[in-house]
Amino acid sequence: MFVAVTAALLVALALALVRAALGPTVFDRVQAGNTIGTLAILLLAALGFVSDRPDFLDLAIVYALLNVVGTFAVLKFFRYGDLGHPGEETESRP
Questions:
Q1: CA distance 55 to 78
Q2: Residue 91 and which of 10, 38, 63, 72 are 20 to 30 A apart at CA?
Q3: d(Cα 82, Cα 76) in Å, to the nearest integer?
Q4: CA 62/CA 41 separation, integer angstroms
């Protein structure tokens, strides 16, 4: 069963790499990068389950959090050109 799951995840990883290479927009590439990170998390969790090492699941959770934060940071950078930008402009009240 582990071999089938690993093979399916590796096929999905190959498809995500193709999407990252072909684009056509930067947002497609960011989504492909996020998908690659998610597939790595799934592979890490499956490996931890098979090897009976629950600490791999903790590593997968930490990597998942880093994947989400990194994706948001990259998207904010491409939208505003600066990570320190506060976001949408709000109207100032007198």
A1: 35
A2: 72
A3: 7
A4: 9
Q: How far apart are the first and last CA of the chain?
A: 65
User: Does pTM top 0.85 for this prediction?
Assistant: no
DSSP labels, the chain: -HHHHHHHHHHHHHHHHHHHHH-SSHHHHHHHHHHHHHHHHHHHHHHHHHTT-THHHHHHHHHHHHHHHHHHHHHHHHHHS-TT---S--PPP-
Measured between alpha carbons, how far is 61 from 52 in angstroms, rounded to an integer? Answer: 16
- Please give the average per-residue pLDDT across 42-67, as a whole number: 91
Centroid of chain to Cα 33: 6
Phi/psi at 6 (nearest 5 deg)?
Answer: -65, -40
